[in-house]
Amino acid sequence: MKKLLSLLLVFLFLLPCLSFAEETEDVEEEWEELADVKDTLLATDVFYHTPNELSAVKCDHELCFWNLEMGRMDEEAIWKVLTQPVTVLTGKQREQVRILAEPDEKCTDYVGVVTCTSQGVHVLREEGDWSLIEAYSSSEEGSAVKVFAEHFQGWVKTSRLKTEEVDQTYGLVVDKLQQRLYVFKEGKLFSTLLCSTGFAKNKANLFHETPAGEFLMVSWVGGFQAETLWCAYGIRINSGILIHEVPSRQETNKAGETYTSYARCERYLGEKASHGCIRVQRQLTPEGVNAKWLWDHLSRKPYTKVIIWDDLDRELCYPSDDLTLYYNPNGGTNYHSQATCTMVKDKYEPMTAFTYGELDKKPYNKLTACPACAPMPRKEKIDELNSKSRKSQ
């Protein structure tokens, strides 16, 4: 009888703990559901595409850049790709190789151009001394191979291929459709920045389009002059294409004093605007990241990997009306993605919440998107981004 009573007491003692454990599991499931719901609130692709999906020769890897769904913010999959080794062509950093349509040294039919050392190529198969590869062509202005930023498959001597290990702490993703640069750290999305990739206005300057693909940050070039513009913190990723701070130039005020102005180019962050380089915001994100931070923190050896998602035939949907945004009701002129932002004084934080569905209503209809914390753009801006995405012929 005493033994039975003891067992009963133990059961009664453990009952609340068992109940609590069940409640904890329920709470965890609810949080997972909420996390899934949160992902669906943002602007995402209407349909997801992969770089290899329309290729003549299909990719048979379990996961790599070429079968990664562009635009899908799958942290685990993206991080696996960002930390994989890269296959490049041997040669000098700005040397470019013409890729052949056939595995024959006498072939003069060139299907694309690859930049040595920094541009990753996808090896599809080997035949004797030759390898079939795919990439996005890096033809520049004046190139005899007029294949600009287009996907191709072609042949190169296998002896030119080399495998490069990459940094395992940081990696970058540039989305040409959303015009965002995503910084990943140790497997997680760390910070989101506004950027501007190349904008080909017409058929005469298609070389301005930034090629997609895999790239390595191979050279800390530093600041350079581009006509009247100064581009600071330049890091080479593909021949003449660099990641750098949004350009500035010297202006003179009414008093005759010279000052540095970013106004000309900063207003275009979040849309295509450059001649091929990737312009990055100078304003600090809530995580303290900007173009200078990239210069200071990213690995120079082993190289940091950059993957660039193409925008060809991609289309964004609108964010959910339930998406939470923030603003400062005490004279603030911007709307924000987070309750705290480097553009707002501490005394006004945390800011007041409202929803994306209210963005076109007073008092939110006059607010502009914050240049620091990269909030989701307004519907008309999404329409504009979709209109500027490249369409297949």
Automatic annotation (TrEMBL):
It comes from Aristaeella hokkaidonensis. The lineage of its organism: Bacteria, Bacillati, Bacillota, Clostridia, Eubacteriales. It comes from the Bacteria. This is L,D-transpeptidase.
